[in-house]
Amino acid sequence: MTFSIVARDPQNGWLGMATASRALAAGAAGRHIELGVGAIASQAFANPYLAIDGLKLMEDGLPAERVVERVISSDVGRDLRQLGIVDHEGRVAAYTGERCIPWAGHLIGGGYVCLGNILEGEDVVKAMATAFERSGGDPLYERLMLALEGGEQAGGDRRGRQAAGIEVLAEEEYALCDLRVDDHPDPVAELRRVLEVFKENAVQSQGTRPQRDDFTPNWEALVRRRDAIERDLDEKQAVQTARET
Length: 245
What we know:
By secondary structure, the chain is α+β, with helices and mostly antiparallel strands. The chain folds into two domains: about 1-205, 4-Layer Sandwich (Glutamine Phosphoribosylpyrophosphate, subunit 1, domain 1), CATH 3.60.20.10; about 210-245. Helices cover about 40% and strands about 25% of the residues. The protein contains seven helices and ten strands. The strands form two sheets. Strands 7-8-1-2-9-10 form a six-stranded antiparallel sheet. Strands 3-4-5-6 form a four-stranded antiparallel sheet. A hairpin with a 5-residue loop joins strand 9 (about 165-170) and strand 10. Helix 2 (about 50-60) crosses helix 3 (about 65-75). The longest helix is centred in the last third of the chain and has 26 residues, at about 220-245. The radius of gyration is 20 Å and the shape is globular. About 40% of the residues are buried.
């Protein structure tokens, strides 16, 4: 009921995925990523435990292809499931059950998987792959966004539109980018708008994100941001007070 991409950036090891669907809050429901382990998209008549257990298997050292084999073999509902996996070394694997509603399938590329079900056709995943490959050199969140836009332009989910989302893990255990549109008539376009806002905020917070080995990597910059926020609030309060007097 969804089209998605899971990917690893070979230049920096970032892991991420993006999803669009005619299902409420689909941008959050099928995404499972762990730093230094991998990323798994679980969809169609999704079984979240396939992704939860799959991440544990990858943490134990199993490559993506073996993970798919193991988790699918344990699920009697496998014919209704769809999975896309990329591990921390960029190895990829995918599975589309025989009874997923057509069009359903996946496309495996170098360090990424595009997959979908109930789509207008195979061109959706092909367009996603083309957009992703052509954007090499861009940040992973931008490449994932372009892949979603490519899939949407090729027809997307043949039931319609409702939700979309992007998540990217970079060097830290928490997400660098975690954006969702849960219920919107044009969720991919709305996600693009939100991503552009994220990019602006990312510039402002560059170099100040807490790191595992340094919770405050740039104290001076953080204090400057704090002081700028307080000045802005003081100015707004002064304007409001002047209007009331």
